[in-house]
Amino acid sequence: MTAPGAPRHPLLVKEGKSLNPNTMYNNLIKTVDDYLLNQTPELVERLYTLRNLILEVCPEAQESISYGMPAYKYKKKPLCYFGVFKNHIGFFPTAAPVAKFEKELAGFKCSKGTVQLPMTGDLPLELLKKLVAFRMSLI
């Protein structure tokens, strides 16, 4: 599902594949909307859900593209990032929130500062809100 009237850039989407942070097309991605709307149709709604969740928890967050993916800053400090990878969506709330909610994240593959979210199925929206809110409290 793409936003009404938002065309997908033909140079960014090739053969129906989503952008990966390591593709040569990333130099064309300048905004979060560019990034989101140039993913496969199956992922667009899911990624907008993540974006809206972050902005709901932190309306003051500033969006940008950093490391080839959507990035959010709060009070000029990193809040979180997310990006599409081959087999998952990476959510990067930094290390402290992942450590704090380790037990609640037990069903997800995690590493320091990273949570791997599934490409399909339900997203853990309430848990993601907790991660973002906790990160905000540290800034």
Describe what this molecule looks like in 3D.
With 139 residues, the chain is of the alpha+beta class. It has one domain (24-138): Aspartate Aminotransferase, domain 1 (Alpha-Beta Complex), CATH 3.90.1150. The chain contains 4 helices and 6 strands. Strand 3 and strand 4 (89-92) form a beta hairpin.
Describe the protein's topology:
Blueprint: H1 32-37, H2 41-57, E1 62-66, E2 69-74, E3 77-84, E4 89-92, H3 95-100, E5 109-111, E6 114-117, H4 125-138
Antiparallel strand pairs: 1-2, 2-3, 3-4, 4-6, 5-6
Question: What are the main properties of this structure?
Answer:
single chain; 139 residues; alpha+beta; Aspartate Aminotransferase, domain 1; six-stranded antiparallel sheet; 4 helices; 22% strand; globular; disordered N terminus
What is the strand tally?
6
Return the domain count: 1
Structural class: alpha+beta
Kindly estimate the percentage of residues that lie in beta strands according to DSSP: 15-25%
Summarize the structure.
It contains 4 helices and 6 strands. The protein has 139 residues and is an alpha+beta fold.
